[in-house]
From TrEMBL:
Cited InterPro entries: Enolpyruvate_Tfrase_dom, Enolpyruvate_Tfrase_sf, EPSP_synthase, EPSP_synthase_CS, RNA3'P_cycl/enolpyr_Trfase_a/b
This protein's record includes keyword GTP-binding: no
Ranges where the Enolpyruvate transferase domain occurs: 7-429
Protein name: 3-phosphoshikimate 1-carboxyvinyltransferase
Keyword Transferase in record: yes
Species per Swiss-Prot/TrEMBL record: Candidatus Terasakiella magnetica
A Pfam family assignment: EPSP_synthase
Length: 439
């Protein structure tokens, strides 16, 4: 346990760069390990979640090394070429690592055992097992589809077509990764588009992936199986989900003006920035460019008097990990912020809906919890603070309430800041470099 105290800070100023994108980093390691040749990755997030993926790839027979200049080099095994690991794969705290790997392992003709920490072992895996079974794989899990699990991969995979019942890039990616090693075409239909890093990066590695928009705003993704993936260099952009914390911190801490450089601006990831602008947040995108196929911009952010808004459910997939920190921004805004379509928050590292509501209440905020919505009422004055927050193995809860404490009247205490290392190593030092008072 690493307790953290966050105190009212004077204006945040300066320029920072947050670490690499977590979603893209996992995929770069996995796809590099399935490609033929040597893949070089720059800007990889060296957070615990991604390091679990690196360790899993090594256990499956790929070579994954970090060079002195910070580049990661992966020597891949080909799409169906992994070897049976001798031990249990430990995916730590990472839902993305576990679920994407279940897709990869579904078509490897051996049995893999997989586990994770207490948070990951409480998260639903049936959502991935259900579409994968018709491909030919079988699973043994704890009750209710919880990890640890055993994955008995098939040597004769069948391609499938699957319509996602929830907007989940992890489920979409698991099906696509299983389809990679099946003959013929695998199709995933998503009613509401989720992050498209798997589609983009598989194309980058030479796979045939077609994406069609439907009349109703959904997407049909078709992958042609059994391509030879060819090693490619990957430049990982910085993570908009990590940029979210300094951005909200600057918006709510009076007098602040900061620049967050080279933020990944994939349109399926930027729902939070759109929402904060609607609330009156002064966020300017400068130097907008395309870096290695992903959109990137420098964000200049100034303290702003925010106003409450209604955030529609349709926006949830593009900001699914950002609701905890949006709820913090809403606590310093004038009026009511109504967030809808939040059912997926209940199955993240913690039940983020319940934990955010409980933590906001501990900090004196007027908040209402519904089955799939949250309403925050605030006056626009500095929120009270003073709460003692339990981070519950959830990095985003820890960082969100550290940000809260920077602008609240009383300090906020977090019982354990160590989960932050899963996605944002160096977070506290980076924030303190801007003038934050976090100890
Ligand atoms: O595919 C990904 O990289 C991710 C997808 C999202 O999860 P779901 O697929 O469960 O929505 C997100 O919450 C997670 O942080 C990363
Ligand atoms: C939900 C998250 O990640 P994962 O599902 O990979 O654990 C997150 O980073 O907020």
């Amino acid at each position: 346990m690493k307790p953290v105290v966050s105190q009212q800070s004077s204006a945040l100023t300066g320029s920072i760069r947050v670490p690499g994108d977590k979603s893209i980093s996992h995929r770069a390691l996995m796809f590099g390990a399935m490609a033929v040749g040597e893949t070089k990755v720059t800007g990889l997030l060296e957070g615990e979640d991604v390091l679990c993926t690196a360790a899993a790839m090594r256990s499956l027979g790929a070579s994954v090394e970090q060079c002195d200049d910070g580049t990661w080099v992966i020597k891949g095994r080909g799409v169906g070429g992994f070897s049976e690991p001798t031990g249990v794969l430990d995916m730590g705290n990472s839902g993305t690592a576990a679920r994407l790997l279940m897709g990869v392992l579904a078509t490897q003709s051996f049995t893999t055992f997989m586990t994770g920490d207490a948070s990951l072992c409480s998260r639903p895996m049936e959502r991935v097992m259900k579409p994968l079974r018709p491909i030919g794989v079988s699973f043994v899990s704890r009750e209710n589809g919880r990890m640890p699990i055993a994955i008995q991969g098939t040597s004769a995979p069948m391609p499938i077509s699957y319509e996602l019942p929830v907007a989940s890039a992890q489920v979409k990616s698991a099906v696509m990764l299983a389809g990679l090693n099946a003959p013929g075409k695998t199709t995933v239909i998503e009613p509401n588009p989720s992050r498209d890093h798997t589609e983009k990066m598989l194309q980058h590695f030479g796979a045939e992936v077609e994406v069609e928009e439907t009349d109703k705003g959904g997407r049909v993704i078709t992958l042609t199986g059994q391509p030879e993936l060819v090693a490619r260099d990957v430049i990982v952009p910085t993570d908009p989900s990590s940029a979210a914390f300094p951005v909200v911190a600057a918006l709510i801490t009076p007098g602040s003006k900061i620049t967050v450089e080279a933020v990944g601006m994939n349109p399926l990831r930027t729902g939070l920035f759109a929402t904060l602008k609607e609330m009156g947040g002064k966020i300017t995108e400068e130097n907008v460019r395309i870096d290695a196929g992903e959109e990137v911009a420098d964000l200049v952010v100034e303290y702003s008097e925010l106003t409450g808004v209604t955030v529609p459910a349709s926006r949830a997939p593009s900001m699914i990990d950002e609701y905890p920190v949006l709820a913090v921004a809403a606590s310093f805004a004038k009026g009511t912020t109504h967030m809808e379509g939040l059912e997926e928050l209940r199955v993240k590292e913690s039940d983020r809906l319940a934990v955010v509501v409980e933590s906001l209440k501990a900090c004196g905020v007027d908040v209402t919890e519904g089955e799939d919505f949250m309403i925050v009422n605030a006056t626009g004055e500095a929120a009270l603070g003073g709460g003692e927050i339990k981070s519950r193995l959830d990095h985003r809860i820890a960082m969100s309430f550290i940000v809260f404490g920077l602008a609240s009247q009383k300090p906020v205490t977090i019982d354990d800041g160590s989960p932050i290392d899963t996605s944002f190593p160096g977070f506290i030092d980076l924030m303190n470099g801007l003038g934050a008072k976090i100890s």
